[in-house]
Amino acid sequence: MSPLKFLALAAAMCSLMRVDAQLQCDNDTSYLRSLIDLKTGYYLGYQGGLYPGGTNTMPYEHMAAGMNVSREIVPLDGDGNLDLADGKVGFICLGASTAGNAFNHFKDVATADPTVNPCLRIVNCALGAKGLEIMIDTVSYAWYWDDNVIPEVYGGGLTPKQVQVIWVMVTSRVDTVLIWPDQPTEVTNKYEELMHVILGKFPNIKQVYLTGFNYGGYADPTKEFFDMIVEPSSYWTNWSVKFLVERQIEGDDDLIFSGPDRNSPWISWGPHVWADGTRANVTDHLRWKCDIDYKPDGGGYHLSDYGKGKIAKIIFNFFKNDPVTADWFNYGARWVACDPAFRESEALPEPKVSVYPNPATDQTVLTLEGLTDGPANVMLVDAAGRLAKSYTVEIHGGYNATAIDLSDLQSGMFYIRVTGVSTPTFTGVVVKQ
Questions:
Q1: SS3 assignment, position 59
Q2: Average pLDDT over every residue of 232-248
Q3: Calpha distance 321→328 (Å, rounded)
Q4: Percentage of the chain with pLDDT > 90?
Q5: Least confident of 69-78, 313-322, 406-415
Q6: CATH topology for 348-432?
Q7: Are 131 and 172 in contact (CB under 8 A)?
Q8: How far is the C-alpha of 183 from the C-alpha of 179, rounded, in Å?
Q9: Strands 163-169 and 120-124, how do they pair?
Q10: Span 130-142, pLDDT tens digits
Q11: Which of 206, 266, 305, 351 could form a disulfide with 257 if both were Cys (CB 3.0 to 4.6 A apart)?
Q12: Residue ranges per domain, the chain?
């Protein structure tokens, strides 16, 4: 064979390889309906909607509980103690590279926005090509946490005891046989185990938000993770999240998020990002276009820069506007101590006293805002008028907070009275559960 013919044949073979190793852009719809569009409809015998009853609205009881948990999120020092001067609220991401790429873009958006809580320290702890089966096996794969995730936490300026919120987007690499509902249920079982692992690694974790995959119909059949991504695999990851959240809402004993038997953080849906390719969701109008949103050589799971920016905005809008997350994600009065501009200002906020969480279990935090310097006396009086506790708090102009131990008190309502030589008298109520 002549050199020219050899080169021509080699070029043709390379061309064929390039044709084979590409996105399947013709698969621009799977004819599946997203959970948010399915609502009270059914898929293979299971009702849609993000939450029980075919609704996309979180049940009131779970939302109220989540809001109380949000009020427990406070700036912590490296040992997990309240620290309004230098404390941080750790917010990390767990998952594979698909999660990490999206989270990096989200982090850029969040850190550039002055309306975001200045106490937040956002750290990407995602690790490429790692699935749930590795994350939950802390014996065989101890290196996943010890050599990767935890060092990333420290490298991001946090300690594990400061991590209070986690966003998760991941699936299993071993549960790829598409049998309904066995496969998504097994992934849910692994999610549940992951909640226990997370609680062990991050003792002050309060909330975990989960997201299923976006559209996988464009998956490249020559890539390693094709079976994990190709539809309905990506669609089913959203059902796995739905099953997990429903388990906690319905009182699963392995997902208790409060009280002495706590074995899990409070769990909720994060942003929902699945749409049926170019066939847009009716509910949120989201769609995924192969040639715009996906990297040509990304296997059908790695997004283009445009796609990453798109998903980052979805994540940002969720955390900024969700009624539960808004309390700790957005800049508000209780985060003012982390604002450098406030520290440099001599102006004091309007005098205010508040208690959170309320109702509380073993501990609540009393905040004293905009008061003048000097000692203040804090008294807790029970419903019968008996003094239950008394504290002396040294007030420093600005924002102060002190933890109040309720563990030795009986359940019930207690009146709070704050008085001082240079402090107006304030009264309030806290309920011990």
A1: coil
A2: 98
A3: 11
A4: 69
A5: 406-415
A6: Immunoglobulin-like (2.60.40)
A7: yes
A8: 6
A9: unpaired
A10: 999 999 999 999 9
A11: 266
A12: 23-333, 348-432
